[in-house]
What we know:
alpha+beta; three-stranded antiparallel sheet; globular; 282 residues; BirA Bifunctional Protein, domain 2; 36% helix; nine-stranded mixed sheet
Amino acid sequence: MTSLYSRDSLMQAVRAFFRSEGFREVETPLILKTPCMELHIDAIAAGDGFLRTSPEMSHKKLLARGAEKIFEIGKCFRLGEKGRLHNPEYTMLEWYRVDSDYGTALVDTQNLLAEVVNCRGDVPRAFSKGWKIWTIAEVFEEFAGWNPVEEFDADRFDLDLLEKVEPALPRNCPVVLKDYPAKLCALARLKRGDPKIAERWELYLDGIEIANAYSELTDPVEQRDRFESCGKQRRALGKVVYPLDEEFIQALETMPSASGVALGVDRLLMILTGVKHISDVL
């Protein structure tokens, strides 16, 4: 029952934070005609559609129709993801704020987690010290000996992130890795003045990736090109190639600049309660 009460307390704290910040809670479809096209994320088929891997595309359609600050806590699904930190069905917190960028999203995240920790009455080890922020170039040069922004290699990046970088991250403070190689970011805006970098960050707590954030791409032509390129890569890997969501691409024509954050609720609950397996908090 401890997990049940902890989850309820977390949900109350999250909703109270977003209410205080003027966000509107939304509820978007779980079954989509087509999921978002991402290289290493596979969707679960459901009838003549797919279970969503995230509410991202639905949220951006709402932004294009005039929504300004929205959040959602809801179930998402990914094919074949099962392990200590993964479950095919999981709970995602996702939020978007217009007229903002990934820097604003980071401030939102810091304030949200401060509120969550304050409501608990104790401080988990992962929040013992202040936030540490590295660029991807800095953290890879420090722990892997090369710069993936300047000499990008997708296979080497994935291997070194898993075997060299993530194990070296401090466990007693929140860690943010930002400014990813552009080729790793299908939906993020490129950094002004440096197109090799995408305005993306990821948050780690106790060495576990908890959240992913972007300055959102709003160029429909570039987004189509990225999806089509991703489709070719998926086909080469023998993966399902999803049809493009034309409604989503069209929505980008009127979508304002915005930032978005996707945060894994189950993993955050693991950190807050000190358990080691995601099944202990489901």
